[in-house]
Amino acid sequence: MVEVRDVVVVGAGPTGLALAIALRRYGLDVLVVEKEPSTKREARACVIWQRALEALRDLGCAEDLVRAGVVVRRGSFRVRGRLCGEYDLAMPGTAFPCPLAIEQDTTERLLRGRLRALGEDVGWGTEAVAVRVGADGAEADLRGPDGRGRTVACRWIVGCEGAHSVVRKTLGIPFEGERRTGLQAVQINAKPDWRFPLDRDLTQIFIQRGVSLIVSPLPGGASRFFAFRDDPAPRSEEPPGVEEMRALVARATGDPDVRLVPTDPPWINRARFHDRLAASLRHGAALLAGDSAHLWAPIGGHGLNAGLCAAHNLGWKLAAVHQGRCREELLDTYSDEQRRTAAGVMRDMRHNIIELPPGPLTLAALSLAAPVVIGSRWAERRTRLMMSDFARHHRPSALSADTAGRGPLRAGDRLPDLAVRDHDGRRRRLHELLSYRRWTLLVFEGGDESGDGEGRSAEPPGLPERYRAAFEVFRVRPEAGAAGAVPAGTLLLVRPDGYVGLRAAVGDRRAPAAYLERWFG
């Protein structure tokens, strides 16, 4: 007999594990297969930014990760060895104000533990050798660790297996883009002996002609030395030696006496990159996520984060369609939103002069401008918004509808974790009211209405009875004087992943009903 599953996830990196966790939280029968014999024992990506931490919280993983990582609160910036200033990495409006330094192998181990708590383990040493997609589902031919083959039928299959995705190649989806030339990254995990600070909450950036060096703290007391530089020998594939890394760090920092003591186990790496984006992330019953869907140079460390956020976006949508609660075209919004997000990250990182190795003119300009820019509140806020991923939105998405409303928060934006008062006057945070398992309707009332002692209402304004099980309604009041508060009289229908789907006026009884008919009908 052919084995039958709801979903087959190909690839057990962070994206595949996070997606499988999301789907199992909705009760789907998920098989995860990975051709490697176990989780990777390589350090690889080492930072999780604020938005991805919120996504991991919804999957029940964030607390374990925070305990295992290092919270990074500050950054410093030096050009030609001169300190140009320090900047604050903390963001308001979230339970995770600062990014987290944590090795990818630790992230994968903790995600795997969460997955096993929800069901069976990953099928290690199992390779997807062929995929077939039909009108009502898919089949995957798998080869196990003993060399035997089996076929698994499923309603959905998701390729999360990286740049050489079998799912993407089988479907013939173009992987559009090109190789990034003239750029390489070399990195080492080590303990330095040098003249610079070793504060455990500080990331340091050093800029010198032809090289940019980022030094970030790691759990256990070591640091990640991550350098972007030119590529004089593009055919060289060997990882750099410790002396090559020491000389590069000495050049970038202006400290000729620096010494590096590699960690045990060692981690030293040389990498080159492609900028590529799949033409579509959905082909019927097959979908793509993570590096199977998009690749770029790891400037800003957003590759891992983009994959985690993609899993967060796709998980609830795939479950809603599979369980018959939403129309199948909801999955097309995943493809559109994630492709737009990935293209935005690629665009931003290609112009990130802070981390790209500068030529002489750029270096001279940085020397003059950096002290002024770093001291600018506007520039600091803009940088924090970009790095945290809080500035990324889904406003152009078909799933975002704006019929009325005031204030900066619009349909498609991430809902900030603002302070509000519920009906009996208790101070709450908006994210306390959200759930990854459902939609949330927030009714922002004026400040003088009398309360009924409940923070939630059994009578959604103007919503058909058949949809009421899909969401909970909370009547709240904006906190007086709170920065970024949502104006009274605003109605927000918030998606399970925390983005605003609909913004309307409280008195508008048609907009919520029409929106739900559009997607749930």
UniProtKB/TrEMBL annotation:
Q: Does the keyword Transport apply?
A: no
GO molecular function ontology, one term from the record: FAD binding
Chain ranges of the FAD-binding domain? 6-347
An example Pfam family from this entry, by short name, is FAD_binding_3
According to the lineage, what is the superkingdom? Bacteria
Q: Which cofactor does it need?
A: FAD
What keyword terms does UniProt attach to this protein?
FAD, Flavoprotein
**What family is it from?**
Belongs to the PheA/TfdB FAD monooxygenase family.
Provide the protein name.
FAD-binding domain-containing protein
Q: Which organism is it from?
A: Streptomyces mobaraensis (strain ATCC 29032 / DSM 40847 / JCM 4168 / NBRC 13819 / NCIMB 11159 / IPCR 16-22)
